[in-house]
Amino acid sequence: MLMPGDAGVSERVMGETLPALAGSAVAGNAQNSHRGTRICSPDRGGYAEVMTTAHVRERLASGKTALGTFILEFATPGIGAICARAGADWVLYDLEHTGWSLDAIRPALAVSRREDIASFVRVAGHSQHLVSTALDAGAEGIMMPYVDSAAQAAEIVQWMHFPPAGRRGSAFGIAHDLYSPGAPADKQAAANASAMFLPQIETPAAVEAAEEIGAVEGVDVIFVGPLDLSTNLGRPGDFTNPEFLAALDTVAAAAKATGTAAGIFSTSDQLSAAALERGYSVISLAGDIFTYQAALAAGLTAIRERD
Length: 307
Fold this sequence. Notes:
GO cellular component, one term: cytoplasm
Number of strands: 8
Protein name: Aldolase
Structural class: alpha/beta
Shape: globular
CATH topology: TIM Barrel
Domain HpcH/HpaI aldolase/citrate lyase: 76-291
Pfam family, one: HpcH_HpaI
Helix content: 40-55%
Keywords: Lyase, Metal-binding
């Protein structure tokens, strides 16, 4: 993925995407005013009341996009609510590149669960412990970096689901079900139905295996990590390289063939347009660092030009 030190990120985001967003902020809030807060009361069945991935699934099933952003710096409790008010369908808390522990994002996950916004966590590596603890803390979906094969994807699906669909350990009345009462069997079924899996396609091997990965039951979105993929193709950050664009085509075709969604992390209108033209429906608009930095730079520049 693109990190703050990547040359040109601020210019690309600030120069293309954010001015349009700033101009439509009020309209965006009005368009999303129907998206309220989800509160789980003790007498209302619990788990099913907070399945906010249903909003993402409904959009994808109806042929619409599901748009979100990455959180890499500002893990404040209200960040998910802020993103929801801006119109995001999902938010992802990144544990791969931040060094955060789950304790750092638990308050944000708790607030996000009460909003009509799905909360995903990207874990730092292939480990059942990392997956199960993220889900127990309240993550509603898991993004896994560097998934290169269907066998890897199938194993991660097992970690994410309660028996008989998988081998996730059971604990209820804790964060992931909002400390609510209820029958374990019902909660297991609801959690299995709600959890989303987004394996990342970041190597040529993963591109080649994309259709096999997408065909694994339990995979919802095959998600391109553009910086790692372009790096592993020998052209770091070159998102116009024909080989990179061909890889995007392959992933899009794999998603279509398997009934999954294709996703990507984007920092520019150009990359977003390339993805949308190919049928990508899950797109991350940059991340909190880049969005804040670019918006601040644009605002300061505008003031200085009038000085």
